[in-house]
Amino acid sequence: MAALSAAELQKRHGLEGAPDPFPSLGNNAPAAPSTSAPAKSRQPAAPEPVDTANEDAFPALGSSSGPAPATTSSASSKWGAASASKVKARVPVSSAPGGLGRSGSPLASSLPASISFSVPSASITVSPKVFNELTKKVKEQYGCNVEASSQMKTGLRTFFVRGPDDKRVALAKKTIERGISKVETQTMDVPLSTLGTIIGPKGANLKVITDATGCRIDIPRRDQLPTAPVNGHKETNGDDSDSDDDEEAEDPAVPISLTGPTPAIVDAKNRINALIKDKVSFTSVKIKDIPSEYYLFIAGPKGKRAKEVLEQGVGQGQVQVHIPPPSVWKALASRADAAAEDENADSAISGQAERKRDIAIRIKGDKDKVAAVVAEIRRQYEEYRSNSTKISISIPKRQHRFLVGSAADEILEEHGCIVELPAIDSHSEECVIRGPKINLIAAFSTVMEKANAIGIETVDLVDAHKTSDAVQHAKNVLRYLIRISKLRQIADAHSGVKVYPPFQAVVESVGNVVIEIVGEDAAQVSKAKEELSSIVKTLSPAHIASVDIDFALHKFLIGKKGAKINQFETAHSVTVVFPPTTDESSTVLLVYTGTGLPTDKKQRDAKLKEALAGASKDIESLAKEAADIKTETLEVEQKWHRHVIGPGGSVLRSILGEDPLVTVSIGKKDGKADQDVIVVRGPSTEVDQIVPALLQVVEDAKNDDIINGHTVEFAVEKRHVPHLVGQAGATINKLRESLGVRVNFDDDDESTNKKGSKNHMVSCKIVGRKEAVEEAKQRLQAQIERLADETTEVITIKRALHPALIGSSGKYAIRLEDKYGVKITFPRDTKDGAEQKANQKPDEVVIRGGRKGVAGAKAELLEAAEFEKETNQTTTFTVPTAAVARIVGKAGANINAIKDDTGAQIDVDKTSEKDTSITLRGDKQAIAAAKSSIQAVVAEVGDRKEEVITIPNKFHGQLIGPGGQRLRDLIARVGGPEDRSQQAGLINFPRAGDASPDTVKLRGDKSLVNKIKAELERLVTDLGDQVVLGVRVPVQDHASRIGRGGAALQDLQRKSGATIQFPGSRQYNSTPAIENAEELGDVPANELIKVAGTREQCQRAIEVLSQALSSPPSRSQTPTGRGNGNLPMRTVAVPAKYFHALIDGQIQRQLRQNGIQVELPAAPAKPEVKRPEAAASQAGAQSARIDVDEGDDNSEQIDYTFEVYDKYESLGEAGDAPLDFVIRGKDEVLDKGEQILQEAVEKAKTANKVGVLVGIPRSAFPRIIGSKGATISRLRSETGADITVGKDDDLITLVGDAQSVEYAKDAIVSIASRRGARF
Fold first, then answer.
1. Contact by Cβ (8 Å): 292, 358
2. Separation CA 1265–CA 1253 (nearest Å)
3. 971 and 906 inside one domain
4. Residues 994, 995, 1000, CA angle at the centre, nearest 5°?
């Protein structure tokens, strides 16, 4: 085999600049010219007679020529020899210069340089024949004579070498030693970090050693080297075992082999040791035999003791000591990080538990100081071990996190004790307090105090839904919550709260899926738990379905940036949860997230099953359409893997293409790494194309047929080079890095670039692997084709037209650029007024791109400019600033109408407090029409005035009226406009939270404002005279007093002028307390009627209500027909708190339809609605917003208050007292009647929550109620909650279960916050 060149050896070892330890010496022979015939065989021959007449054998002494230049020249460089031909012609040896003797055999006297050396005869392994050939080689290459003699006594063989100079003699000696001595191989271990020193810059140090010793030094290939420390840390590949963020990785030893004669090997070792002497004086020690529970004692609080005593004291600042914290600390910290970041939150459930053992103590630094520190650590350990004792206590596992980190440091600093916690995946809750005996009790108290200092709540996902596979369902729910970032959202929504998912080890070993909620504020923690529990309860097993889809198809289903799966989720109202890619799991979860589910469980489950079944079927269909997946496993040794990958992945990328559809796992199969396989998985057609390419690369690497030296060269016009290279080389560097090729541009020979030639050519040379080179060439040529077609056009367009041609945010110019594939550059002004480009005039527009695209863009731009000249007229005038609001209108309604009607563009610019500038753009007709419309609006505004009056906040609601109707009637009554859009902004009542809650602002025409002010003052005076009185009316009389459809009550209110509220009415609780409570005495709550108005009005109403009815009907029983007393009867006991739910008209009608009569018991007190205390003072502040200005935004931030409480908590024990409902009817219908009552009771049990919502602006009430109550009816149906909207205040009452109340609240707030929208 031919000798390896330096470059080849460098590539083999992956070492930049490594020298050739076996230089080819064939080129080093002197090339002395000779006039004699070529020398014949070197074998001994019979003596020939001496020819004294031969001038060659006996030259004249006077004419002796000097040595030939080739003979005396230095040996050629070994690096140059590598590039020479490996087959050399035999060079005949001429007679020695100036010598006398036989041809080609110089005499000793003519060779001034000499050397002798001895070699043990036993180490000579060559035969005499081989030795003779070796001496011939030495004579041919170096012109040296070699003589040898053996000494039997010493066992040595001595060689005497003579030559023309010392350098050749030395080379001859090395050749002889290498040729005759017994060659052996020895290894020596050197630290990995010293390899760079041994090799040296571009292999200089290694070359010096090999040249000086003649040894061959083999350094392991880069892929065979142990993992190198990165930035002082050991590379762990994601495994945290035996490593730590703060620890210095141990420098691994690397065995290097030295091949050559024994003396040469010894010499080489000495030279290497001299090079790395300074490096190995630094050492790193690991202590593993000290139990980890004593680590904290040695480290001290916050590591102070280790730093002060060990590093600064014993180590004198020349060592670094790393004492790892307990592994349970790290496990808890990593769990917290996973829950907080949520970027890869799947690790929160699928991540590993903490390591089974703590890592060792590590000390690095000066050797002597490290030894002293190790001795001190062991002494401290013995002292702590003999002087400490321990006690065991049981602490719930969820509280362990409060005993690590700074808390543990405080305990250690205060009491000298440590707390040992069990492993995360351990079932044990036993903790150990270790320290001095006298301090254990105090430490115990501190430990318990810290453990109980912070509130913890848990949500058990397994208990949320009791099913046969509750654990798996809980895992699915947890993965879904993590997928939608719900845990992080809940934590962010509640101040100071953190939410922790469970550990995978705990889930697998115990079967519990418990989410922990931690925070110092117990109220916030409780709210977070309630929110999370509510979400978990809604996610029943029926909401989730699983589908098995090959994991290799997941990325195809997800699509680019999730576009495909987002579309699927929207279409099917589901969330798709894919498993982590590292799991290679095929289980995909489908979670239904749609709305509008039936309230009945059977119907809801049926709909969920149908929806998820359809989604499962469709996603399986998508998976089948995605690809016909195929897996191909190639048996390839690991040593060839790097050839498949290529530098920086370049080879693999060039095979797979820019958008690969297959996955290639190199060295990994079935979850096991470091295997001799390459697994290709993807669509079968793609796999069939990729596999041969991979095998070809492997075959090429094995046979060394294709190396990274494939070269392609082609000519490129010089003008294209800057574009190909890019700014600061960005474009060409990107190509180099992505494909791993070298690209150079060099000027061609001058002969190819004739003078006067416009197209100066440059040579582009691409070097690399064949596949990468061809791909790079293809990309460059494609770019050159685009550049060759590029042209530039400059057109002149008046500067005033540029903004219209560019468009808002450049949208018109960008559209043209995208349409024609060109770059359009308009001139810009810099800050100092100078043009940005000196060669571009203010009226010039530059278009650059392909010829066809430039022509199209130019034509369209000139056409648009011509159109703008005709239509882009401008006029500016001023209007009073006070009229701008009317001109613009609510949400821009008026000004947009003017724009649409006239086609003009209108810009409003406030120039001063009094005047505002208005600019109109368009054609002349449009400008004239727009100006006329604006001036007409200004004329309507007239003389405006602003007035501020003070009205007590308590009267605001009564003045505004339901939906602002009373204000609208007031404005119309005093002669104001009846159109609501014109009424807007005339009267502004304060909002909740305003600094002046009693201030009302009037704004509008002067005369109208004065009239409104006078009317408001009159109404306030009347309201100030109002009182609220009470009157007792028996429950059985209420129906008669109210009348059918409230007719009797309305008639009484009309005649008396007072407002009458019966118990149970929506405004009853919001009506102020009565003034004559002492006069009435103890009146049952259900018989107290409130009458509001002036005292005279109240007295008239009370007089009528106090009159006895002539024949009062009883509401305690339904009307009976003849002989009803003889019908069978049955008594049904019902808790008193459900009485009002059972007397609902719908239930009574249902009983009557079934032929059942009911005798009702005496009515108990009805639960009162509690208005939130925080909002009680704001009643009426959020009144109807007739006062909203027209310029207000469509959206509004609602400042509301919402409280939820138990509906029956105010009744106490009285609510549980039984009441007897007597039902009468035929025997066959009594069971049906009892069933109706029991079902009504069960329904009332579930509707046990009352939500009180205040602060919603009354202007939003019409949107909440909707046309003829359509919206509120829909909300009641969708949420399942009973919704009652206050007539005279902002109180909204919601009754139902907790979930229904919450849904109803969210829906109402959403409607109220979107002003102007219809629902």
1. yes
2. 15
3. no
4. 70
pLDDT at 1030: 92
Q: pLDDT band for position 62 (50/70/90)?
A: very low
Q: How far is CA 982 from the centre of its chain?
A: 51
Read off the pLDDT of residues 620-653 as tens digits, 9 standing for 90 and up: 888 777 667 778 888 888 877 877 888 778 888 8
Tell me how many domains the chain contains: 9
> In this structure, what CATH number is given to the domain that contains residue 1164?
3.30.1370.10
Name beta bridge partners: 716.
Answer: 762
What pLDDT, on the 0 to 100 scale, is given for residue 104?
Answer: 45
Boundaries of domain holding 29: 1-36+62-106
Query: Which of 75, 24, 76, 21 has the alpha carbon at shortest distance from 210?
Result: 21
- The answer as to whether 640 is a domain residue is no
Q: 848 and 892, same structural domain?
A: no
491 domain residue, yes or no: no
336 within domain boundaries: no
The residue out of 1015, 1039, 1074 marking a domain boundary is 1015
1147 and 1094 share a domain? no
Question: What pLDDT does residue 247 have?
Answer: 41
In angstroms, the CA 564 to CA 66 distance is 87
Residue 1173 contacts residue 1244 (beta carbons within 8 Å) = no
Residues 918 and 976 in one domain: no
368-394 pLDDT per residue, tens? 888 899 999 999 888 888 888 989 888
Residue 910 domain-assigned (yes or no):
yes
Same domain (yes/no): 1198, 1079: no
Q: Which of 700-704, 1050-1054, 1179-1183 has the lowest mean pLDDT?
A: 1179-1183
Verdict on whether the full-model pTM lies above 0.70: no
Q: Where are the beta strands (DSSP E) in 851-897?
A: 873-880
Check: CB of residue 110 under 8 Å from CB of residue 70.
no
SS3 content of the chain, % helix, strand, coil (to 5): 45, 20, 35
**For residues 613 and 605, what is the distance between their CA atoms, to the nearest angstrom?**
12
Burial state string for 1148-1167 with b = 16 or more CB within 10 A and e = fewer than 16: bebbeebebbbbbeebbbbb
Please give the Cα distance from 494 to 472 (Å, whole number).
29
Question: Looking at 157, 182, 207, which one is the last position of a domain?
Answer: 182
Question: Does 194 lie in the same domain as 173?
Answer: no
Q: Which residue in 889, 818, 846 sits closest to 1189, CA to CA?
A: 889
Flag whether pLDDT at 910 surpasses 60. Answer: yes
Query: Which amino acid type is present at position 664?
Result: V
